[in-house]
Sequence to fold (659 residues):
Amino acid sequence: MAFCWVALTVAAVLATGQLNDVRITSGTSMLARDAESARVLDLLAKQGGRMVPTLVVYERAGPLGRADHAAVRRHIRQFAGVPGVIDEKMTPIPSPDGHALQVPVLLSGKQGVLVSPMVERLRQIVTTDRPPGLSGYVTGAGGMAADYVESFRHIDVTLLALSLAVVLLVLLAVYRSPILWVIPMLAVVVAYLGSAAAVYALARAGLVTLRGATPEVFTVLVFGVATDYALLLIARYREQLRVTADQTAALRAALTGGIRTVVASALTVAGGVGCLLVADTNALRSIGAVAAIGILITMVVMVTFLPALMLLGGRRVFWPATPLPGQSARDGLWTSVAGFVGRRARLSWVGSSLLLALLCLGLATVDASGIPPSALFTMRTDSVAGHDALERHYPANAPVVVVSKESVSAAVASAVRGVEGVTSVHTGPPATWRVHDVVLAAEPNTHEAQVLVQDLRQAVRWAAGDAALVGGFATELLDVKNAALDDALLIVPLILLVVGLILVVLLRSVVAPLLLIGTVVLSFAATLGLCSALFTKLLGYPAMDAGFALYAFVFLVAFGIDYNIFLMARVREEAARLETREATLHALRVTGGVITAAGVVLAAAFFVLTVLPLVPVIQLGMLVAVGVVIDTVIVRSLLVPALAHHIGQVIWWPRRGAL
Fold:
């Protein structure tokens, strides 16, 4: 079995490529499939290719001189010769203070045409043959799209190396053995390579899509989950090696309960993240599909390949702490924790609940209005510098695109000009869907811009009905926010229902699933409150991404239930021979160490995402990491076992006992 998995993995890796090669970064990647702005992009693509508005900004500390204007004119002539630049008349627009010029440049966004090389060429032109003291930047939608793509370049190797290092360090710390870590590490690597090869093949076939940061989230997710399952199974194996001298019998006994727990855990997590498949937002569906596939393949690897390696290694791989029959486990810490919970159950669950409620006070700082373009990156990119230059020298403006059928184009243009807050309207040449480039007097991704977009849409509807649509950069930001809210209203109750049903089937109880789901929701609220306060008060992030809370909810609920299963499945197993309260304390003693180690691995794996220079991904990584730690240390160590101990047999209602 072990050799078959290795051969299969090697063959799959040789036949596939890197996930980054099948990443989609098109304009609709982060939009909802039925959003009006997405329909505008699709119409423009079918009509000959959408256009990506880009701005080249020049500025000087003082007034611009003749040499500056001459350099800009030379650059404009060179811009026109760049492949992919739509050769329309490019006229520099001076700033009111005379210190800056901006040149609107339209880039081709046709299918298969990459924006990044065009932006890179524009930047090369801007930085050459320029008078001393004159600065130049490429910003706008094109510049920011290029910087977004660049932020992922070469990061996958770093992320993979860090994930491997995290797993290795945790395994060495947990096992304190120079040999044992090799077995779970090999299984984790095979699980990652196998699942990555499957996702790559499905993406190449067009069956799944990888959008935004999906490959990075997939990497840390698979490493974290695979290590968790390895820790659980090896802990059960070591426990049985202290009972019997027969290694095969010990492995069989360990797998009897261990595989059932791993399968239940994987199905629960996959079912939870799989709920994202019903989302309208493209990026959410992408992460949901890829994460579910990765978890299920990881489960198969860990319940087949890992046991084969464990059997090959036998008892000797645990050296120097070789488990022997009759030997007692060293669980002094968790014996003390279980003793405290048993003596002070009410104090334990009341105190931990109050602590989580206190952390929930940070929810008052939550602002999910979306991250402004200037704060999207942790580093000062060229597009951010250009955006700041525009703010210094020009009135606030938000670009919008209105498309209308030719028969109503005149009426639409007139209606648009009559909307308060519209500063300019440029109507393109006749076409089936005529393009009107509109500028609003507001900063993109602000409340003012959203109000103006809604007013503009209302005016266009009155003028042309369904014969006109409003899209563009500022509108896309609003549509992303609205789609995230709609998705949350659908997915939050759905994931709670799916997870609840799985727990009812697993635990054969109604009370226990309700209790576990309640603790997970409280843990999520506490984590969101704490992290929101950290983001806004300590790290200085102005807001959170519109879909950030939903991503975090899905992952934290799935992982929280995952650790609930680790604990409560063992409680139910022990309740076959012990009274429920005794079974709870025994389960806490024998699983406390492995659950804590699993939580540390998963938290560290997601924290690795903070190496990416994108603020939304950093926020997601930090929140999941903090949430897993809170869930492991407070919820799984104190709150859940204390509640189970306090409630006793009633936790298995409507049954009288666990079986």
User: Anything to note?
Assistant: Residues 473-507 form the longest helix (35 residues). The radius of gyration is 28 Å. The mean pLDDT is 83.
